[in-house]
Amino acid sequence: MKTFSLLHIDSQLYRQNEFVHHYFDAQLSARYDSNFLAFKQLPNLTQYQLYELYLTSFHSLHGMKHIKFIWPENEELSEVVSSYLTSKKYTITKLYLYTMNSTHYLPTSTSVAKIQKVTDQTMTFYLHAQQEESLRYDSIFAEQKTYLLRKLIRSPRHKIYTATVDSQLVGSITVHLNNRGIELDDFYVLDMFQRQGIGSALLSAIVADFPNTYMMLVTDAADTAKEMYEKLGFVNDGFRIEFLKTF
Q1: In what order do the strands lie in the sheet with 66-70?
Q2: Residue 230: what pLDDT?
Q3: Cβ burial, residue 80 (10 Å; 0-12/13-18/19+)
Q4: Is the pLDDT reported for residue 137 higher than 80?
C-alpha cells in the first residue's frame, strides 16, 4: 500500500520524539509546507495544546507567522479537537492520496502545447514565470520559492515538466522520485487553458519517461481536479488531515 510517508518534503527533520516529527527549514521560513509538526500518533486535546504552545513559541522565535500541524494518516479529528481548532480559527484541510501504475494511464486527448523538461538552459524562463506569480503573495515567499525551484531543477531526484503555448507557460508538473515510484506535485494548468488536453499531455510525457511506475499525487477534498484524476484511472489510497493558522 502507498502511504503519505512516501511523499517528498521540502524541509529538514529538525526534531522528533515518540509523538511527533518537527520539520523546519530556515531558508524556507515563509513556506508553510516546509515548517510544520506532524503527529506520529493521536494526541488528546491536552497533549495537542502542549505541542501547539511549543510550535507557536518556536515559530515566533524564528520570525514565522504561521503554525501548521499534520494529523496521523487515515485518522479523523475527534469532536473535541475539531471544536477546539474551529474556535481557534484554524483552517482545516482534508487531503487524499491518489495512486496509479503508469501502465494503466491512457491519454484522453491531444494538445497543441509544447511539453518539455526544465533544464539549466530553460531554467531562466521557467523561474521568471514562477516568480511573477509568487510576487502576487509576498516578495520573501517569491525569493524562497526561486531558491527551492533551483535546488529541485539541479537535483537528479526531481524533474519539472512544463507546457507552453506560443511561448507562454500555461502548465507544469513537478516529479519527485522515491523508492516506490514517483510523486506528481504542483500540477496546474492555467484556467483559460484548461479542458484543452494540456494536463493529459503533461501526464503522457511523464508516463513515457517512467513506464510501469507507480504514480502518486495528493489533492484536497475541494479540488475539482479530483474527478479528473479518477477518470484517468487514479485510485484513492487514503487521507490525511492538516490544519493551519496564520498570524
Answers
A1: 13-16, 20-23, 36-39, 66-70, 235-246, 91-101, 214-220, 181-189, 168-178, 158-165, 114-117
A2: 85
A3: exposed
A4: no
71's grid cell: 494529523
Whose cell is 538552459? That residue is 121
Our measurement of the distance from residue 187's CA atom to the centroid of its chain's CA atoms, rounded to an integer in Å, reads 9
Q: Which of 37, 115, 30, 107 is nearest to 69 (CA)?
A: 37
Is 216 in contact with 6 (CB distance < 8 Å)? yes
Cell 491512457 sits on residue = 106
Q: Which pLDDT score, from 0 to 100, does residue 120 have?
A: 87
pLDDT of residue 136: 78
Q: Which grid coordinates are listed for 149?
A: 525551484
34 DSSP 8-state letter? G
Q: Which residue has the cell 473535541?
A: 80
C-alpha cell at 207: 508516463
CB 81 within 8 A of CB 241: no
Alpha helices in the chain (DSSP H): 45-61, 79-87, 123-134, 139-153, 198-209, 225-232
pTM: 0.91
CB 137 within 8 A of CB 146: no
What is the distance between the alpha carbons of residues 39 and 48, in angstroms, rounded to a whole number? 9
Specify burial of residue 245 (Cβ count, 10 A radius: 0-12, 13-18, 19+): middle
Cα–Cα distance measured from residue 9 to residue 178, given in angstroms and rounded to the nearest whole number: 11
Q: How many CB atoms lie within 10 A of CB 203?
A: 24
